[in-house]
Fold:
Amino acid sequence: MERWQKPLTVINVEPGDDYQLDSDGSISRSTKITYSRESTERIRLGYACARCLEVFEIAWPVACTTCGAPIRERQLEYFEREYGGVINLSPTSWDDEIAAIEEHGRKEEERNGRRMDV
Structure:
């Protein structure tokens, strides 16, 4: 496999904060995708489609050969609108990690306590 053919690396997928009304009347929620730094750069530089994740041998083709997205015309605009910045996914220290786990446990206990009172 040639280097350019390497698939993008998705680190995490989770529900987003936005909703949209689909053409059939149903409501769908956005998706928040976290890519590796290398994959994010490939999208930003036009070597991969931000819509379907197809990778390209040459940057900025007119359109994606898989989904038809207008790469040359619109991808940079889409990337600038959707890019959330660099997120550090590693804990800052063990003390911070332990404190976060304890806080999560307290919140879970509070939620469970409220459910029993209802």
